[in-house]
Amino acid sequence: MSAPFFSIVMATHNRPATLARAIASLRAQTCADFEILLVADALDAETAAVVARDLGPNDSFLKRTGPNGPAESRNRGLAMARGEWVIFLDDDDSFLPTLLAALKPHCERAEAQALFTDITVVTEDRQQPGIPELGRQTTPLAGADVNTLWVKNFIPLHCLA
Q1: Is the C or the N end of the chain the one with fewer CB within 10 Å?
Q2: Cα 104 from Cα 135, distance rounded (Å)
Q3: 9-25: string of b/e by CB count within 10 Å (b at 16+)?
């Protein structure tokens, strides 16, 4: 099996509804040249059902032990990555369907080492059924001066490849 172009590293912790939405956003991608590396630091029955239903044969799942927290889960996923480019996606985030297709030509440039995208932050009520949206705000990062972003420490992890 050949290596995928993108490795999507996901950390999860007992949030089956948002995990299912995050995976669905990956399944909707117009560029399918990726693998999902899902690492859980806790696993309830509902999350296990999402994993069994939504991960594909080229994806990987790891239930790790040790202290809870996304950092170690992300590091374990990163260690398993086979793709040329790595993108992190938390279980409560999602990608627009064209993200990977739009990102790939930029990644293929010889000088590309790290890329970042714009971000839309959606506020939602996770206590309500269906997780209703309360508001959204888009921050354009793609055209921003990278030195300014580094200094301000404002490049959200899921906007970085």
Answers
A1: N
A2: 29
A3: bbbbbebbbbbbbbbeb
Structure tokens at 55: 């991960």
Residue 158's closest CA among 126, 117, 125?
117
User: Using one digit for the tens of pLDDT, what is the confidence trace for 7-17?
Assistant: 999 999 999 99
> Does the structure show a pLDDT above 80 at 138?
no
pTM: 0.82
CB-based contact 108:85 (threshold 8 Å): no
- Token pair 């996923």 is at which residue? 77
What is the phi-psi region of residue 68: left when phi exceeds 0, alpha when psi lies from -120 to 50, beta otherwise? Answer: beta
Asked if residue 151 lies in contact with residue 131, where contact means CB atoms within 8 angstroms, the answer is no
**Burial of residue 77 (number of CB atoms within 10 Å: 0-12, 13-18, 19+):** buried
